[in-house]
Amino acid sequence: MNDVASKLKQWEMERGVPVPSIGVKEARLAYAHVVISVLAVLIGALAGLMQTLIRTGIIPEVFGYYQLLTAHGIMLGLVFTTMFIIGLLYALLAKSFGRFESFPTRVAWLGFWMIIAGAVLVTIMVLANKATVLYTFYAPLMADPIFYVGLVLFVVGTWLSAFAMFRMYADYKRENPGVHPPLPAFMSIMTMLLWVIATLGVAGTILFQLLPLSLGWKDTVGIELSRTLFWYFGHPLVYFWLMPAYIVWYTVVPKVIGGKIFSDALARMAFLLFLLFSFPVGFHHQLTEPGIDPFWKFVQVILTFLVVIPSFMTAFSLFATFELRGRALGARGLFGWVKKMPYGDVRFLAPFVGMLFFIPAGAGGIINASHQLNAMVHNTLWVTGHFHITVGTAVALTFFGTAYWLVPVLRGRTLTKAMNRLGLIQAGTWAFGMAIMSYAMHISGLQGNPRRTGPATYFSDALTREWIPYHMAMAIGGTILLISVLIFVYSMFNLSFLAPKGEEEFPLAETEEAAMETPRFFENWKLWITVTFVLIAFAYTIPIWHLIESAPPGARGWVLW
Fold it and tell me: Where is the Cytochrome oxidase subunit I profile domain (predicted)?
């Protein structure tokens, strides 16, 4: 924190303003995003449980199954994650840079309100049953034009948020020439850069295909091109969810356990590789689709497996940190460090359990991306189970564990022992419920149980009746998950308004003294952005040209609800 920031903080303390670890205005900006994310997780979880109970036959179809599924996906997959991530990144930048300048702050608030406007329009259209197109809004499903306008506002709002962060980063670089910006700031900028490049694809299909179709300006839509543009966005979206969790794993968890970051250079290198390898891989989501040359599917499958490299680098760095800290506390043997970790601290336990879930989740990702194995699990509940232990567990548990210290930091309050215990219960119920539900999804998916399928007459067939116990397990798991969400919402309310005022620690670790020096070329943004677009051009130019040159007649928009 610079001198100006320190004086402003002193001014706020003298006037009785709750004292967060960062500036009050910066805290308010981050907190506003976190509040919306908490509301979204409540709505999304409720919609998720209801659609599970409807499909299981426990409750009647009061709301449309696909309508609830759309609300579940949008609220959790887009609103909850995006708002929490942006709020967390603002907090990390505020801690790294001190006070935000006036201009980027105004841009950041403009982005916030534009995101809210977009989310409200999208929600209204889904509730009105005019946009039951699921969160992937695949063509030729056609929603009301207002739904697509809402999506455009949502994406543009996030671009403004990204611009504000890029400006803050540039200001820091200009004021501190020759200095590496702090690691959390570097990772935050890398995350938002990935988001901006990724959303170019989804913006393309909305603006030039889906919105004109819904407005009646076009009669047909090219389905394959639309799906390709979506999955150009859809796979990096997974890393947009994961990279903030990695930021917490790399920089926060080491501080919580009393250790240090294993290597600043390794962490930055991993994030650079995530940026490079996240884009030219979307075709592994379209392996069963015709119209795409098998050669390009093969190329993108190979490139998909390269993402394993930064993932293993991350795993190595994290467990090296755990072992170093454990040995410093007297641990012996290969796994003696396991006994030395602070399992009674929700700030550690929730992200740590998320890491453990990510091990089978990563293995499942390799299966999904393998052409032959993908044929076995494609469009089954296996994929849904994979999604839930990746984003719904590794990412969500890390965000939950983060919220237990972030909200007190932003509100100038403290994490009490009682709320820490409640957080442990909440993290435990979430992990237990997700384990039951995702296990049932994986197993019944292997038996051919399709995903995204509402109540159907074939469920009474002798063959498909074998899936019923798994659906009951999913309903039980979903109920436990909703209970966990209710505990989480109460915890956030308590930490926002009822917890004692004070200054909660903003846990950010330092790097090990023995770690290698971070190379200067890691900050060469022109180089990395250029390499990223070269890889994208290599992987997509010829296939998309083929899709346009040999395009089928196209399909009229479908409204099936």
Answer: 11-493
* 451 catalytic residue (yes or no): yes
- Across all residues in the chain, what is the average pLDDT? 92
- With bands split at pLDDT 50, 70 and 90, how would you rate the model's confidence at 455? confident
Q: Assess whether 388 carries a catalytic annotation.
A: yes
For range 214-230, the mean pLDDT: 95
Phi/psi-derived region of residue 528, left when phi > 0, alpha when psi is between -120 and 50, beta in every other case: alpha
Q: Which of 55, 72, 180, 235 is an active site residue?
A: 235
- Among residues 72, 99, 347, 386, the one annotated as catalytic is 386
- pLDDT tier at 241, thresholds 50, 70, 90: very high
**Widest CA span of the chain, in angstroms?**
73
pLDDT number for residue 248: 98
Domains and CATH numbers, the chain: 26-519 (1.20.210.10)
Give me 358's structure tokens. Answer: 């990510």
- 60 falls in which pLDDT band (50, 70, 90)? confident
452 part of the active site: yes
Is the CB of residue 90 less than 8 Å from the CB of residue 26? yes
- The residue annotated as part of the active site, out of 411, 413, 451, 471, is 451
Distance between CA 509 and CA 506 in Å, rounded?
A: 10
239: annotated active-site residue: yes
Is the model's pLDDT at 107 over the cut of 60? yes
* Active-site residue, from 227, 388, 413, 471: 388
